[in-house]
Amino acid sequence: PLVSSTPMLQAARAGGYCIGAFNVHTLEMLQAVVEAAVETESPLIIQSTVGTVKHLGPDYIAAAATVASNANRIPIALHLDHCTEFDLIVRCIRAGYTSVMIDASHSPFEENVRQTLKVVEVAKPAGVNVEAELGKVGGVEDEIVVADNEALMADPDECAKFVELTGVPTLAPAIGTAHGIYKGEPKIDFERIGRIAGLVDVPLVLHGGSGIPEEQVRRAVSLGMAKMNVATELRIVFSDAIKAVFAKNPEENDPRKYMVPAKQALKEAAIEKMRLCGSFGKA
Ligand code: 13P
Ligand code: ZN
Ligand code: NA
């Protein structure tokens, strides 16, 4: 069965490693990250954005993730990424999601506390993990767009107060990463990660995982980042493999002929992220 991501993330923070959380949009993408995790004995968080939940339906996604969790020994959690709608969070929990993100980071602090608390109150009794965001992660993630000049770093004292007021079990503080591929290198505020981790003992979540150089990922993880979200890079790898098939054979019309190489490419990319996370053998 699917498990809550809270214990696996607490173990990761305590153990100084990180768990890859991968956004998937199709059955093959889900299978690819599962195969990557099984092969490397990594704990796994499968994620879907609100857009994908609306596209596929939460029940289909939860069913596929449940099959994967029943068929393998590794712990697998299913997470709803960047959700701003309370009703959809409840629907996903009912469908079988074991982790949800309430993203009220666009709202003032008090409103973020209020909305997060409301989600914690329904999720905790159901044994479901909750993630909230403080500050604003820049870039484009599905339906959420934050311009560079609107991105905002999380304040460490606010993080401490937020966790105390909401009891949220995992926190995503904005510390300089962004959704999408960076133009240059990300400007991560490591000192800020350290200060937040010093004040807050819950596992921290690193958003914007695509395009962060290996050294920076390792440093962020060593400071307390216990979950790394990866979306854009995986979509690119998967789509590029499909494009390569059609470039070679524009007449191809057997979905397996382009899905199999796409799945393989995605699996390899996910394994590489799990290596950066240090999650090999932690399942
Ligand atoms: P990337 O698209 O940069 O990998 O960010 C993913 C993310 O943070 C999903 O919540
Ligand atoms: Zn994100
Ligand atoms: Na990114």
TrEMBL record:
It is an enzyme of class 4 (lyase). It comes from the Bacteria. Zn(2+) 1 binds at residues 82, 179, 207. Dihydroxyacetone phosphate binds at residues 180, 208-210, 229-232. GO terms for molecular function: fructose-bisphosphate aldolase activity; zinc ion binding. Pfam families: F_bP_aldolase. This is Class II fructose-1,6-bisphosphate aldolase. The gene is fba.
